[in-house]
Amino acid sequence: MKNILEETKLPVAYDHFSKKDNIQPPYILYKEENTDNFMADDKVYNKIQNYSIWLITKKKDKTSELLLENVLDSHNIPYDKVNEDYIREENIFQVNYEI
Prior knowledge:
Blueprint: H1 2-6, E1 12-14, E2 27-35, E3 38-40, E4 43-46, E5 49-57, H2 62-74, E6 80-87, E7 92-98
Parallel strand pairs: 1-2
Antiparallel strand pairs: 2-5, 3-4, 5-7, 6-7
C-alpha cells in the first residue's frame, strides 16, 4: 500500500509521522483497519485487507484529492471518500478514504 500511495509524490506514513520528521501538509497517512476475507469450508480463500487513508492538507485541496484518487484508480483499487473534517486544534483539513 505504501508503494502505491507514494506514487502521488506526497509524503506517506503508516498511521503517523514522528514529530522529528517535521512533515508539513499535504501528506498521506494510512492504516490497516480490518479484514473482509472470503471464507468457505473453514478456510480463507481470499484475504481482503481494509485500509483507511487520510489526506491531510492545510485547506480544502481538490488537486491533492484527485491526485490520490487517480493513483487508486490506476491500480483498480475501489475506494469510498467517507468524510472530511477541519481539525481546528491542528489547523489542518482531513479527507478520509476507505479501501
